[in-house]
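User: I'm curious whether this sequence folds into something compact or stays loose and floppy. Could you predict its structure so I can see for myself?
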Amino acid sequence: AEYAVALMLSLNRKIYRAVNRTREGNFKLKGLLGFDMYGKTAGLVGMGRIAKELIKILRGFGMHVLAYDLYPDHEFAKQYDVKVVELDELYAQSDIISLHCPLTEQNRAFVNTSLLARSAPGLILVNTARGALIDDIAVAEALQSGRLGAYACDVLSTEPPAADHPILSAPNTFVTPHIAWATAAARGRIVRIMADNLKAFLAGAPQNVVS
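Assistant: Here's the prediction. I'll summarize afterward.
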């Protein structure tokens, strides 16, 4: 959740571009204009555990929040003033969208040309879920045309990607190497879960079983 916010802020406030410019001695402001997140609308695709933490953060920014989920938590939505909507409405009304859903055969490449054509012009799209949720070519073309304002992802459809992966050369794009999870605390939790899983298996009572 924190990493998704970091990507949003980096795209909106042109942080990476600004850092590169100042390294070159360029302190001009042209092309670095962002917008206040306060009062803007964020759309979340998925309302799982991570998305719920992100909602809390975004509400703290003073953003309006829309959410789409096949099985929405209406009680949580009411508590945090989240409007549960259909996917088309979410894309049409959101200034920033963050993907937080698992990959299934039903939603593979669902962010496609048709959906992007119905989105708000200049949309910022953030993907820390799964790379294959987007149609790579469609997103790259939308970035080239300016229909999609910016795209940041920590995941790609193939990792590591081929050198000619269309997202890598698209404008207004940040790609990071699947590090949203990478904090010392998270690594510690992973090690503890692994140890607990091993103990449970040796005791004849496996847990966290993947079928």
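Summary: The first strand starts at residue 41 and ends at 45. Strands lie at 41-45, 64-68, 82-84, 96-99, 123-127, 148-153, 173-175.
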